DNA sequence: TCTGGGGTCCTAGGACCC
DNA sequence: TCTGGGGTCCTAGGACCC
């Protein structure tokens, strides 16, 4: 049996732990650059605010005091997530951390699974302040749906238990029969539209469809989903995350950029971020891709978007080497007289740093380069990100991502600890 | 005025190998 | 009349996830 734990409205719930004034009120957390809503409290959902709704459409509600809007604070969310995952790891034999706010875990060998899960929800609530729901089922897909059912029930009735168990067919089949097919994990809007044309509108109808036929008509993914809905497990628990195959850093600018110098700065900055991630996972990259684009929503400007990429002669995690190559790639595609909105970078063909063969003919000693980077990382870890950087990155970043409504780093910066006062 | 970011997997077709 | 069989690698595009 597999369980899925999912923290309710995760980003909003993290903000509420630190700022109780947000409890019970409509709250949304915005994407990077304060662009769109990516997390909504139940009260905000009740106001009709959609996932991905642009922030500027919500200004009116904020101004009239009916909605609180916050920038995202990933430092806080990452830390809160780690606390929850630790509680889970301490109590269950096998955990797959599936995303920042979700984890699958194995219930094999646990007596009274429902009671165990209910205790878990209580413990997480007491120790971290975060509300969560657990779904249980014979497969990951059914555990997901059980979790969804638990969320729906607790939204309608806060007194409802936060655990739903879909182990028994009689418990799950009636729910599946009434559930829209696009709520099923793995069925997105495109597949759902095609299924609708074939007369499959509910999760129950998908469960009862001919798996073989749909495999040929759609793909093996749909076939697996059908089998999983019937209780036949096709997806295993992945306890050790597979190594990343690519690292992407792409952000839209806080303000439009038409100056090529600023564009180069931004790219250099993103290379530094991506290369830092690369070194943290002890890998080197063999390929660099760069792209840039104008704002697709702005109809008054000339639209322009290009990508360019290079293989590296020798895989590396050296910020300087990667940066030089990335700048060369960008030089070949950027034009003057364009108002840019976004530049992005992808490092791929990642391999473990210690699997790199030596280079007999080059005078450069890669180990020396690696030591230089290790020193840079050590200084920046101790003194703050960007203390030592490439001159190319510059200092006054007019293009930097906006985050006008960000809460403090309550749990990770001594200077920003929350203060408790006696009343 | 203002519209996110970071990932994975699957498929089909072409090129190429022995 | 009938013209092999089995495989890999690469790329682009599509779809999905949180």
Q: Can you walk through the features of this model?
A:
The protein has about 425 residues and is of the alpha+beta class. Helices cover about 40% and strands about 20% of the residues. It has helices spanning about 10-20, 40-45, 60-65, 75-90, 115-130, 140-155, 170-180, 190-195, 205, 210-215, 220-230, 260-280, 320-330, 365-385, and strands at about 1-5, 25-30, 35-40, 70, 95-100, 100-105, 130-135, 165, 245-255, 285-295, 305-315, 340-350, 350. The protein has a five-stranded mixed β-sheet with strand order 5-6-1-7-8. Strands 9, 10, 11, 12 and 13 form a five-stranded antiparallel β-sheet that branches. Strand 2 and strand 3 (about 35-40) form a beta hairpin. It is globular and about 70 Å long. The two termini are about 50 Å apart.
